[in-house]
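Two proteins follow. First one:
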Amino acid sequence: MKSPAVKRSIVVGGHKTSVSLEEAFWSGMKEISGARSMTLSQLVSEIDANRNQGNLSFAIRQFVLDHFKSAVVAAPIGELRPRASHAQGLAESSLETR
């Protein structure tokens, strides 16, 4: 069975490396870097510089998860109607408030 992780080359801190992530995490990274007006390499370099433990792939997954979790928690109750995204891996209906 083929792994769902996609391996891509990226420049991190001026050095080329490869990172294996599931497509949902790559999509989340693109969304976050676009919102911050930075390149994917710049965002991954920032994550790499701030990680305390684990490998880079783990640090990226944790960063993306934390980013989207905090966005949901920070939204006022009754105003939360995020679109479902591949990065969140959640159905839109499960996040809508009623």
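Second one, unrelated to the first:
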Amino acid sequence: MGFVAAAFAAGILGLAGLTLWLGLLAIPAAAAAAFVSVSDLLEGKAPLLSAVTNSLALAFIVLESAVRSNAAVGSAAPPLASGALVAALLAYSIPTVAWVLEPVKVTRAKPERRRRRPAVELEPVEVFERAA
């Protein structure tokens, strides 16, 4: 996510070459995160949301790098490239937003019920086996 944020910042500052290289450097890091989250999902360790959002972010980063590398030299960055970077940043932020909006589970200790004492105390009844 750091490379994507740095590429977005470089794109805002107008550093097209740096944005391209940061986007290309972000691909292996995003691929590693996506592969690990999918393998954790298959093992039952990670939630589905993490695997989906990391995979979507990888797809958006690859799209951004492809569009930006095919742009004409000296021209402005295509809007699709900037939009793909924003979409990748949003995909990375979805699990954090979901975590913040998750309802807090409050565990309350139930008060112990007061038991009324019986007015007459009964003695335990013994059960005898029936003789055969």
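SUMMARY FIELD: The CA atoms of residues 123 and 129 lie 19 Å apart. Residues 2-101 form one domain.
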